[in-house]
């Protein structure tokens, strides 16, 4: 067994089930005019908070599993009762933009404003102050880590630079990274985009890929972070697929099911990986 990374209580690997509860926010950000008149696109995404989310919560409850939900301010303001069920069930919530703003498209002032606004929405709606952040569409620019540490975030979960937790050095301190990857995202496989050439993958194929990646990452004592969206993964057969994956992972000894916050806290305390340097504004990579 590999000891490439040390996990609490001698565990072999970590598993983070993460859900990005975007609701309609991604569409509203990218196509604000169409969002105001297209009912079809909006309803496709509302399925997530209306039907997908309760299914996901029931599945997590059935197995007593922790999870992290990254929720944009838009979802909190437009679907407050649905997000309240996540809070009441005791799951971790992390910031995920206001209206799913891709931060690489924002200037410094706008990025700062969006960050302040989402923290304010969390505070005034739930009295919560998330410690974690996942950028919408996993887009980050070089100043984002510094901004996150300046505003007191302890971790980010948007980058793909490793498959164990690592750190990003910033002028305001070290930001812990709980890394993601495209292979473990439901959207590239399940999401139907009209006119695009990729076919919708059946759950057996997706769960097969995720299971193989889990087996490899288990051997590598890595951090298996899977990213799902309630409006995509909340469909009935996909929930069944997720349940098969959960049963497979639970059958292995030494799997630490944790929130992203728990992984980030362990990473910071155990201090095992290196920190990457982020170029300062104007500095050449
Ligand atoms: Zn998202």
- State the low-pLDDT regions, or none: none
* CATH architecture descriptor name: Alpha-Beta Barrel
Number of domains as seen in the coordinates: 1
Q: Helical element count?
A: 12
Proportion of residues in β-strands: 5-15%
In short:
With 285 residues, this protein is α/β, with parallel strands linked by helices. The protein has helices at 25-30, 32-37, 39-63, 73-78, 80-88, 108-126, 144-150, 187-190, 203-219, 230-233, 236-251, 260-270; strands at 13-20, 68-71, 92-95, 132-133, 155-156, 166-170, 173-177, 223-228, 255-257, 275-277.
Descriptors:
46% helix, single chain, 12 helices, globular, 285 residues, binds zinc ion, alpha/beta, TIM Barrel, 5-stranded parallel β-sheet, 15% strand
Question: What does this protein look like?
Answer:
It is globular, with a radius of gyration of 18 Å. Helix content is 46%, strand content 15%. With 285 residues, the chain is an alpha/beta fold. It has a single domain, classed as Glycoside hydrolase/deacetylase (TIM Barrel, Alpha-Beta Barrel). A hairpin with a 2-residue loop joins strand 6 (166-170) and strand 7. The strands form two sheets. Strands 1, 2, 3, 8 and 9 form a five-stranded parallel beta sheet that branches. Strands 4-5-7-6-10 form a five-stranded mixed beta sheet. It is built from twelve helices and ten strands.
Spell out the blueprint of helices and strands.
Elements: E1 13-20, H1 25-30, H2 32-37, H3 39-63, E2 68-71, H4 73-78, H5 80-88, E3 92-95, H6 108-126, E4 132-133, H7 144-150, E5 155-156, E6 166-170, E7 173-177, H8 187-190, H9 203-219, E8 223-228, H10 230-233, H11 236-251, E9 255-257, H12 260-270, E10 275-277
Helix pairs in contact: 3-5, 3-11, 9-11
The chain binds zinc ion.
Residues 20, 22, 26, 96, 100, 136 line the site of zinc ion (ZN).
């Amino acid at each position: 067994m590999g000891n490439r990374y040390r996990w609490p209580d001698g565990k072999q690997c970590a598993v983070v089930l993460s859900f990005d509860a975007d609701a309609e926010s991604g569409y509203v950000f990218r196509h604000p005019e169409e969002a105001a008149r297209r009912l079809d696109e909006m309803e496709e995404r509302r399925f997530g908070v209306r039907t997908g989310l309760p299914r996901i919560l029931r599945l997590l409850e059935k197995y007593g599993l922790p999870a992290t939900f990254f929720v944009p301010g838009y979802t909190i303001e437009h679907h407050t009762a649905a997000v309240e069920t996540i809070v009441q069930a005791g799951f971790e919530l992390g910031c995920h933009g206001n209206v799913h703003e891709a931060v690489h498209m924002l200037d410094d002032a706008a990025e700062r404003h969006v960050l302040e606004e989402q923290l304010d929405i969390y505070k005034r709606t739930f009295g919560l102050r998330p410690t974690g952040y996942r950028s919408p569409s996993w887009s980050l620019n070089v100043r984002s880590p510094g901004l996150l540490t300046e505003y007191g975030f302890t971790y980010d979960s948007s980058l793909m630079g490793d498959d164990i937790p690592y750190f990003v050095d910033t002028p305001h301190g070290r930001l812990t990274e709980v890394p993601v990857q495209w292979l473990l995202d439901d959207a590239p496989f399940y999401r139907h985009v009209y006119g695009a050439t990729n076919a919708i993958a059946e759950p057996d194929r997706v769960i097969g890929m995720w299971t193989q990646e889990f087996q490899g990452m288990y051997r590598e004592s890595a951090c298996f972070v899977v990213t799902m969206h309630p409006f995509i993964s909340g469909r009935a057969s996909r929930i069944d697929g997720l349940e098969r994956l959960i049963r497979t992972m639970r059958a292995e000894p030494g799997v630490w099911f944790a929130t992203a916050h728990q992984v980030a806290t362990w990473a910071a305390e155990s201090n095992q990986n290196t920190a990457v340097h982020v170029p300062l504004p104007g500095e050449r990579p």
